[in-house]
Amino acid sequence: MKRSIVTLIVAVLAMPVLAQAQQSDGELYCDQRKLGHWFYCDEPEPEPAEDGEVPIENTAAQPSYTEQLASISRELDERKARAILEPTTENVREYISFQRQQLDRASGFADVWARTVWQNPDLDYTLERPVGNLGKQSWRTERTAAQDSMMRDLTQRYGVFYFYSQSCGACSTFSPIVRGLSDRYGLDVLAVSMDGGVTPGFPEYVVNQGQYERMGLQGSRVPALVLFDTETKSTVPIGYGVMAQDEVIQRIFYLTQTQPGEDY
By CB count within 10 A, which of 64, 95, 220, 241 is most buried? Predict the structure, then answer.
């Protein structure tokens, strides 16, 4: 019992001291009792460096990788210039040696790049667009089938405006191509004459009464093809000039089936 009372008294007497210590921000321990860095009053002295070791505070900041690469490029250019301007055996040897080091580094990077791509299918673009002959052939076969299916379904929603001029030689070449696409897929094509004349393959036509401008076409250039979306009542210009059937189909596929950047 007596010990408990003594302990309580000591605790009570200590309270003002603790409060004072908190309020004075360590004045009691740091200034009066001089306890030093053991109570975080003073910054601890750095440990002495071992022989040959550079103290951390004296170590220069490590240059960034971009700076290191730029430094290598500058060094390579400098050695090359010196070898050209002072073509001694030693200068040329040093340039070739340094260049070989960078070639080895680049080869290592290319090797790791390839291994990384092989092991990470999400990084392998050739899975989307093959570069090997066998892969290309398979990809083309699949793409042709997809485009053919797209063109057959296209007639349910889209029509085509074909703008031409009778006096246009390119139009005379392109008109049979457009006619062939229409016959092959059952695609509705409305031929629009810019000068009132007829064109091969389209004996039935209308004369331009502002349709060209309303379609968003520019400069009265012909021949010109435009898709018309019957659901949204919007137009999608396909292009100008003479195009092969495959090119027309490919453009329609990109414009109606893919988003920008998706297929590249």
Answer: 95
